[in-house]
Design brief:
This protein has 319 residues and is of the alpha/beta class. Helices cover 53% and strands 13% of the residues. The two termini are 28 Å apart.
């Protein structure tokens, strides 16, 4: 049945659902969702995430941690989110794990008060400076791009080991990449996982892929440290060709992939000697993140539906 639904329509529908807070509250209360979410989220508590991180480290994979949460609506919620990041950084240092985190400005209070957001991020960067940690500021939808880049530029002097994210889906990204290359910024390049209007974003997958390839080429050839966030094997093969042909040192770039997605590919790349960092989310506020993962690939939706069917048949047998 899923094959009869155009992929673009399905993706748009799931992205629309990701923004429905009431649906998220309902989903997080349902017990049967937890096994499905566990594929993409490394637990709801920090201790669970630390176990997953240790297992990835043992397999030769690098990691970055996302303490789930976004679009907070109060100063108190933003401060609590910052505290969770501080505890996470301390725990990573204590366990000898990768001191690398990724955060969203809307979780730090960007939509509540910009000064509050700045102060929360500054606290995290100060702790990261003490611990020798790297902090990546995630990119959100197109309405937050300027605020995200501006705040990163403002705070970078406090802790130079910070980076940003550029989305190939956005039409403006070529100009942003050009400036970031000049600034020697560590850039993570991803395709983009938000529902965007055609006026600011490419809506055709082929166009997004072409833009990703073009931006990737510029970053590998001219950028500082580049993180290529993709599971697309065609783009990965192209990146490897560029690195080989241009004789680019492997230390100045890495591949990044999502927790629970293409583990086989992650392992193959590590075996071939490439750096692979896994984006590891944890926390109770998993709903928007989970829905965006479902929207990225129809196979993820199939996985969800099969799990639902298994749960339903199991309940009938128990009844």
């Amino acid at each position: 049945m899923l094959r009869e639904v155009p992929e673009r329509t399905l993706r748009s529908f799931l992205l629309a659902l990701s923004g429905q807070r009431w649906l998220g509250r309902a989903a997080t209360r349902l017990e049967f969702t937890r096994p499905m979410v566990a594929r993409f989220v490394a637990g709801q508590a920090l201790d669970e995430a630390l176990e997953a991180l240790a297992a990835l480290h043992a397999a030769g994979l690098r990691t970055t941690v996302d303490v789930l949460g976004e679009s907070v609506t109060s100063v108190e919620a933003a401060a609590a989110a910052a505290e969770r990041y501080l505890r996470t950084l301390d725990a990573l240092a204590e366990r000898g794990l990768d001191r690398n985190v990724s955060l969203k400005l809307s979780q730090m209070g960007l939509e509540v008060d910009r000064t509050v957001c700045r102060d929360n991020v500054a606290r995290i960067l100060a702790r990261a400076e003490e611990l020798g940690a790297f902090v990546r500021i995630d990119m959100e939808d197109h309405t937050k791009v300027d605020a995200t880049l501006d705040l990163w530029r403002e705070l970078r002097p406090l802790h130079p080991a910070t980076g940003v994210v550029i989305q190939a889906a956005l039409r403006r990204s070529a100009a942003d990449v050009e400036r970031l290359i000049a600034e020697r910024a560590p850039v993570r390049l991803c395709k983009g996982a938000y529902r965007e209007p055609a006026s600011v974003a490419f809506t055709d997958k082929a166009d997004v892929d072409r833009n990703y390839a073009a931006l990737m080429t510029e970053l590998l050839r001219r950028g500082a440290h580049t993180a290529l966030a993709t599971h697309d094997e065609r783009l990965i093969r192209r990146a490897i060709e560029i690195v080989r042909d241009e004789r680019i040192e492997r230390e100045v770039f890495e591949f990044q992939m999502l927790y629970g997605v293409r583990r086989d590919l992650q392992e193959r790349l590590v075996a071939a000697g490439y750096g692979v960092r896994v984006y590891v989310p944890y926390g109770s506020e998993w709903y928007p993140y989970f829905m965006r993962r479902l929207a990225e690939r129809p196979a993820n939706v199939t996985f969800l539906l099969r799990s639902l069917l298994r749960e339903g048949s199991g309940s009938q047998r128990r009844g």
